[in-house]
């Protein structure tokens, strides 16, 4: 094997690897000897087929295997000889000229192929001990606990049937059948459906048509599906719903007492109060940590300037762009609706892709240098947490992840990132800054693109997510 570097521009590399005809012949002979004991040919006893005959019958197809194996082995060897780490699996360029291929298969010509790849950049890690960070902290006050419990009560309203007309805030129980141009359409009918008027959970015109309704009445309501409705066959269409009112009930805010707590499955009001306080503290601690992490990532991003492997940035951008355009298409929105243009959005998301790649490389390097690792046990715990999000399908989801190394890597990556972030925040100068809850949860970049900055290289975003699973009514 002979290796020549033909391109070393920036982080791009191309190698020319040549395997001599003599070495290929040795590999072919060895492979034919292995086949001799296994192959079955008419007229020959097992294990006694002459090698020359095997070469005539199988030579070309076996040589194709030999070439494939030789490329796999020599390419790995050629890369390992270098003091560089490829950023991705090198691309192999095999000969395309037919006469050259024939010459190789006939054992007369050398095999020359190319390896194209990009290498990971070498860079110095900034001195994190000199980085000043603020950890925003919002303490939980009694008023916060009271407000949270009042919100709990407001979302656990009790309803009392009434004889009067339905008003905003009332809960209406009904049967309905939806029709388009007089024809019943799939998913447009329901029995014992409930709607709280004024919450805009149904399509425009439906809830308005229920105002003033009374139990026992039947009516016809016209309502129009939005232009951006996810079911394309219904988008923008006007439908008629034949409605039978079964009950109208007015809301009663429950008294926050021991009985209310028991209704939520908690023994007493005091225990409910303790549970609410604990949850608020956990939520605020998580938000505080996220803000601190973001500040650290900002500092790491600004503190490192080095060339990035172009293909890694391209792949990261394509993944982001595919999600962004898919979300816009699904919601029937445009870049103009988002207050930007496609050109500006491309530029912004390319910057975000570069940031993710840069931070990914920096965090990986810091983790490697400091021997930060994620154990299999930690991955298993995180996997079980993920699996619990799919009730009824736990075994199927668990097996899918376990049998797919790439999916397991996606679980391991954020665990590794968080460990490195924790390590770095211990090194940095962190001061606590008291803030209000509103300031703690405020998004400093309140536009369509910047929310991608919160993570180094975590790809599991659903920033534009919408619930498309509501009934048509």
Instruction: Outline the biggest β-sheet.
Output: 5 strands, antiparallel
String of helices and strands: EEHHEHEEHEEEHEEHHHHHHHEH
Helix content: 40-55%
Strand content: 15-25%
CATH class of the largest domain: Mainly Alpha
Low-confidence stretches: 447-473
Number of structurally distinct domains: 3
Question: Given the helix and strand composition, which structural class is it?
Answer: alpha+beta
What do we call the CATH homologous superfamily of the largest domain?
Answer: Trigger factor, C-terminal domain
Indicate the radius of gyration in whole angstroms. Answer: 33 Å
Can you summarize this structure?
It contains 13 helices and eleven strands.
Explain this structure.
It is a single chain. This protein is α+β, with helices and mostly antiparallel strands. It folds into three domains: 117 residues, Trigger factor ribosome-binding domain (Alpha-Beta Plaits); 95 residues, Chitinase A, domain 3, CATH 3.10.50.40; 178 residues, Trigger factor, domain 2 (Orthogonal Bundle), CATH 1.10.3120.10. 45% of the residues lie in helices and 18% in strands. Strands 6, 7, 8, 9 and 10 form a five-stranded antiparallel beta sheet that branches. A four-stranded antiparallel beta sheet has the order 1-2-4-3. Helix 8 crosses helix 9 and helix 9 packs across helix 12. The longest helix is centred in the middle third of the chain and has 35 residues. It starts with a strand and ends in a 32-residue tail after the last helix.
